[in-house]
Amino acid sequence: MRVTRRRGEKVAGRGTAATVGAGWGAAAAVVADQEAALAVEEKERVVLCFPLRYLNSDDYEGGFERAEIDNVLSDIEFNFHAWAENFIVLVIGADDPISVDKLGRSFKSMRSEIALALAKTIFLGDMRHTLDKVEVPCTIIQVSNDFVAPVSVGRYMQSRIKGMATLEMIDSDGHFPQLTVPHKLLEILDRVMVSNKPCMVENVPSFHA
Hints:
InterPro entries: AB_hydrolase_fold (IPR029058). Belongs to the AB hydrolase superfamily. The protein is built from 8 helices and 5 strands; from the N terminus they run βαβααααβαβααβ. The protein has 209 residues and is α/β, with parallel strands linked by helices. The protein has 2 domains: 16-54 and 128-208; 66-123, no CATH class. Helix 2 (66-78) runs antiparallel to helix 5. The longest helix is centred in the middle third of the chain and has 13 residues, at 66-78. Residues 1-14 and 197-209 have low confidence and may be disordered.
């Protein structure tokens, strides 16, 4: 059965929804949230998290200067697999070989030309403007020592989200807590969901977000 409706029109009979997003997949969730009224009558929470912009600017600390991003893109273009091996160790740590191997196999399954195109979209992109449109309550989960997404990113998101936003810190290293400290991530998720609060998950593999 096809349901036809006007833009912005709610569909009767639908329940509430909680959205969990990470990395640039969360950016897509932010945009989709603007259309959520098309699919649900009420929205309980949106779970979002991503470096909105990697490049530093006068009023924003994304963690990288343009020359650093250019070097990353050059390395990906000329030897993607070598770059992936180094990058994965940086964001996970050499003391976790199981997670390094798991993420490495995922990264290396991409063709190098696709990886480069995706990297340009991610590292040169800017999704900061989407935050002003997020009205549902959010909890931002931020790793305290993240090479890719510094704490400034989480604080910026908290300050810019239009709805209520809470910042939760995980005392750990790395960019992928779901691999390196899943128990800490699950503790926060359990607490947030049980208390019927929203949740935003940060620092998930950027290339597969």
